């Protein structure tokens, strides 16, 4: 027998009288770190001291970048709490659009329902845990490929197949598990905190305060949330811990003259400045020449790092974002999305030249990061030192990590 259900207008929330506690336990927490692993990881956390000034400080120990226990611990403490950038609103521009993703052991789907509302859910069927959907596209409902259970885009269970004889089955308790979702500018954000479930819209000012702190206006003034045309996505799997990529981004241009010979000619490195905010650091640098139509970098460049793993780069007519997704202790996925001012969206030659230049820089950075990871795993290395004049943003990142991990 197939059970057909009427649509439910609101995303359901778990009710306290749920009759199968073991089922709710599977969905109410995304922690993947045992007590023993947690104790081991906290011991490693304390090997870094954020109270020591940068001039005297040691960098975090190599265990932060290689130990499986530490990796599981930081997923729980860093990525499953607070706002995480996962995509952009262009991906769900119209009703029925959706995209999927994974962060740690959390599989998620973000969609826009029939009424134009954005929703996000754990991408897991409530019957026997099959993934519901993959990739991105357009669907009027989500039908499980395993046994055909079907869900509305608001998460409600529409159809449960062949459940004749089932007992104590409460329809409203078997919708998709929601994840708190919001947007800022062109970006889609999720909050996977198990204590927070969403029913109402998120206030934009509150979101900006929680995610960006006091620098949200600075980013707006520099065109980060201005209307831009989406160009393309590039993805890179890198054999390094996700923090290695972040550290490379945050060294204040230190590595640029040594590793990026083609890029350095377009920048005035002596003009590099770094500003530190609550959870954001912003690096700024002047271009090497006046901005012209053929100049990819323009006269000024802004590089914003939003803790823990999202980077926004605004330069010339371009904006690109870097999302670093941890895949394991020594592996990560870096997703680049490119946006361009509308006046240049049809200039295919300019776009192609710019993307070729950008690709060259990414390949150079991948070589650097993979080399660092191999060095970190060498018995010759434990901790390093900071260059105080240029690596303030990196030190800030490590201090934020410490605070998340120790509390």
Mean of residue pLDDT values: 88
- Radius of gyration, Cα only, in angstroms? 23 Å
Main sheet summary: 7 strands, antiparallel
Number of contiguous helices: 10
Proportion of strand residues: 25-35%
Count all strands and give the number.
Answer: 18
Summarize the amount of helix as a percent range: 25-40%
Strand order of the largest sheet: 12-18-17-16-15-14-13
Described by the principal axes of the CA atoms, the overall outline is globular
Low confidence ranges? 1-29
Please identify the oligomeric state.
Answer: single chain
> Kindly, what is the distance between the CA atoms of the first and last residues, rounded to a whole number of angstroms?
50 Å
The arrangement of helices and strands along the chain is EHHHEEEEEEEEEEHHEHHHEEEEEEHH
Structural class: alpha+beta
Subcellular location: Plastid, Chloroplast stroma
Pathway: Amine and polyamine biosynthesis; betaine biosynthesis via choline pathway; betaine aldehyde from choline (monooxygenase route): step 1/1
Family: Belongs to the choline monooxygenase family.
Domain Rieske: 83-190
């Amino acid at each position: 027998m197939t059970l057909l259900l009427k649509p439910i207008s609101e995303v359901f929330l778990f009710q306290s009288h749920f009759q199968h506690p073991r089922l709710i336990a599977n969905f109410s927490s995304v922690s993947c770190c045992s007590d023993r692993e947690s104790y081991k990881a906290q011991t490693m956390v304390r090997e870094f001291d954020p109270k020591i000034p940068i001039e005297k400080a040691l960098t975090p120990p190599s265990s932060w970048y290689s130990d499986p226990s530490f990796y599981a611990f930081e997923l729980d403490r860093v990525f499953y709490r607070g706002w995480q950038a996962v995509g952009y609103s262009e991906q769900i521009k119209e009703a029925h659009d959706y995209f999927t993703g994974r962060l740690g052991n959390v599989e998620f789907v973000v969609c826009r329902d029939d009424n134009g509302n954005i929703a996000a859910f754990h991408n897991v069927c409530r019957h026997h845990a099959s993934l519901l959907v993959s990739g991105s596209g357009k669907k009027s409902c989500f039908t499980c490929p395993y046994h055909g259970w079907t869900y509305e885009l608001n998460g409600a269970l529409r159809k449960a197949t062949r459940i004749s004889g089932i007992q104590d089955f409460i329809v409203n308790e078997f919708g998709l598990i929601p994840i708190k979702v919001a947007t800022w500018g062109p970006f889609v954000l999720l909050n996977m905190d198990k204590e927070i479930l969403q029913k109402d819209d998120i206030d934009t000012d509150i979101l900006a305060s929680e995610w960006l702190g006091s620098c949200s206006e600075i980013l707006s003034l520099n065109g980060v949330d201005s209307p831009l045309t989406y160009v393309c996505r590039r993805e890179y799997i890198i054999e390094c811990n996700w923090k290695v990529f972040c550290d490379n981004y945050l060294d204040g241009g230190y590595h640029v003259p040594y590793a990026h010979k083609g890029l350095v000619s377009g920048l005035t490195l002596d003009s590099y400045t770094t500003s530190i905010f609550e959870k954001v650091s912003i690096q700024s640098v002047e271009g090497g020449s006046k901005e012209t139509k053929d100049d990819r970098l323009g006269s000024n460049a802004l590089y914003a790092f939003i803790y823990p793993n999202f980077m926004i780069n605004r330069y010339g007519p371009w904006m690109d974002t870097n999302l670093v997704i941890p895949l394991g202790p020594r592996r990560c996925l870096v997703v680049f999305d490119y946006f361009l001012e509308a006046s240049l969206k049809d200039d295919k030659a300019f776009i192609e030249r710019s993307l070729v230049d950008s690709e060259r820089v990414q390949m150079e950075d991948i070589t650097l990061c993979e080399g660092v990871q191999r060095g970190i795993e060498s018995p010759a290395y434990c901790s390093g030192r900071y260059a105080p004049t240029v690596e303030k943003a990196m030190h800030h990142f490590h201090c934020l990590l410490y605070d998340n991990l120790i509390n």
